[in-house]
Automatic annotation (TrEMBL):
Highest taxon, organism lineage: Bacteria
Every Cyclic nucleotide-binding domain range: 11-72
Ranges where the Histidine kinase domain occurs: 288-458
The protein's name: ATP-binding protein
SMART domains hit by this protein: cNMP, HATPase_c
Organism: Pseudonocardia oceani
InterPro entries, per the entry: cNMP-bd_dom, HATPase_dom, His_kinase_dom
Species lineage: Bacteria, Bacillati, Actinomycetota, Actinomycetes, Pseudonocardiales
Keyword annotations from UniProtKB, A to Z: ATP-binding, Nucleotide-binding
One Gene Ontology MF term: ATP binding
Length: 458
């Protein structure tokens, strides 16, 4: 490569021969051959490429195909070299030769040094621009992530609060119930109840387990009143306290009469108190089991959603990830009808599960915001050719064309500050397209918006 080769190029028009000579000395002439790759998208942009003659095609990976996004087809066109000012700069496209020619390749470090020496102020401005833009983007995304995390945390805390409170109440009541149970056993022993009598009372207690539970509130109230009156008529102390527990277990006055036939006199009250305490303890244990089980399910949902203790790349059941996302956002789905359409036989795919869950979160969150508390959210998963196709649709007002066109732009949002996660579709697009070689598209019209994500199975 000679100085004369570059002198006529507009790119170097403001440089003198000495500066061009320094650039030539710092660089290397590289031949362009059709089909030969010169630099690759996503790799460190540690070289600057200036076209002298020939042609280079620029392409990016979109889904499973390489899409041409531009051409270096005129002398003086250039690409790369971003690491001269940004230590994390990468190539934005892949460059392949299409027409024989030459390109000057200059290491980014050398380019940065020359630019600093020739144009110190300009070099400073470029470096500041790179770092400022990256800092703003990083801060904005961090803030967005924190807001989203806070929203999810508040939602899961709300869901956990109810079963946790129920478990706490059950424990407190169980403590009192067990005290009563022990005291009634002592009273029974004091009445010289025989083993045969106790066995008869226990058989009556066991019978209650097979009786249907009264669920109608009015019927249950009437039953409690009948039992309380019967207990008062038969001299049982604190009938008002025993009646609700016996009624909840399915006991009626006929059952009480049979109990009176098994143990009579002063032993009847302690016997019924023991039965009431026993059935109450059983009911409270069932409530405690259900509450703690619900908490365990929610914890499992959080682990599934965040993919804790799992490798980043793994075999992923897409429908399972969507279900965990819907569970995480369950506090927001009140009033919304959720329709799941999961086709059978959809195979798992190799994916970054936690990242895909971010995609489903953005799509579902946007749909819920669009419907504002009422409507139908439809989520479909099916195998379409060699792709797993996921459709998230809502019955909201839809996007106007101007919004749909910009939906995948970074930082674009139609939401108020502090609400939701922003549209977040630029994040979703990068995860789907760049990380998983898939595609994502919008189809929006009044009353219906549909996001279609396609993920390759191979």
């Amino acid at each position: 490569m000679r100085v004369d080769d570059l002198r006529s190029l507009p790119l170097f028009g403001d440089l003198d021969d000495g500066q061009i000579a320094q650039l030539v000395a710092a660089g290397t002439a590289v031949r362009i051959e059709p089909g030969v790759e010169l630099f690759r998208e996503g790799e460190p942009a540690d070289s600057w490429w200036a076209l002298v003659d020939g042609e280079i095609e620029l392409s990016r990976r979109v889904g499973r195909e390489d899409t041409v996004v531009g051409r270096m087809d005129g002398p003086g066109r250039w690409a790369g070299g971003f690491r001269a000012w940004d230590e994390r700069g990468v190539y934005l496209a892949t460059g392949r030769g299409t027409v024989d020619g030459r390109v000057l390749r200059v290491p980014a470090a050398a380019l940065g040094e020359l630019a600093e020496a020739w144009f110190p102020f300009g070099s400073h401005l470029i470096s500041g621009l790179y770092h400022t833009a990256r800092s703003i983007e990083s801060t904005a995304r961090q803030r967005q992530s924190l807001v989203a995390l806070g929203t999810l945390a508040a939602g899961i805390a709300h869901q956990i609060n109810n079963p946790a409170a129920a478990a706490g109440r059950a424990v407190d009541e169980l403590d009192e119930t067990l005290r009563t149970l022990v005291s009634t056993l002592g009273l029974l022993a004091g009445q010289d109840v025989s083993a045969a009598q106790f066995v008869a009372v226990d058989a009556l207690r066991a019978e209650l387990a097979s009786r249907p539970v009264v669920t109608d509130a009015l019927a249950l109230s009437d039953l409690e009143g009948d039992l309380e009156a019967w207990l008062d008529d038969h001299g049982v102390d604190r009938g008002w306290l025993l009646a609700p527990a016996l009624a909840a277990a399915g006991a009626d006055t006929g059952w009480c009469a049979r109990a009176a036939g098994a143990v009579d006199g002063p032993a009847l009250g302690p016997a019924l108190g023991w039965v009431a305490s026993t059935v109450s303890a059983t009911a409270l244990l069932a409530e405690l089991k259900e509450s703690t089980g619900r908490i365990s399910e929610l914890v499992g949902t959080v682990k599934s959603y965040s993919q804790m203790d799992r490798a980043s790349m793994q075999r992923v059941d897409v429908a399972e990830g969507i279900d965990s996302t819907l569970a995480m956002l369950g506090h927001r789905t009140g009033g919304v009808t959720i329709v799941r359409e999961y086709a059978p036989g959809v195979p798992p795919i190799d994916a970054h599960a936690g990242e895909l869950n971010q995609v489903w979160t953005h799509l579902v969150d946007n749909a819920l915001d669009a419907m504002d508390g009422s409507g139908t959210l439809r989520v479909a998963v099916e195998l379409d050719g060699t792709d797993v196709a996921v459709t998230v649709s809502d019955t909201g007002p839809g996007m106007v064309p101007e919004v749909a066109e910009r939906a995948f732009d970074a930082f674009f949002s139609t939401k108020d500050v502090g609400r939701g996660t922003g549209l977040g579709l630029d994040i979703a697009r990068r995860i789907v397209v760049e990380r998983h070689r898939g595609t994502i598209a919008i189809d929006s019209r009044p009353g219906a918006t549909e996001l279609l994500v396609r993920l390759p199975t191979d």
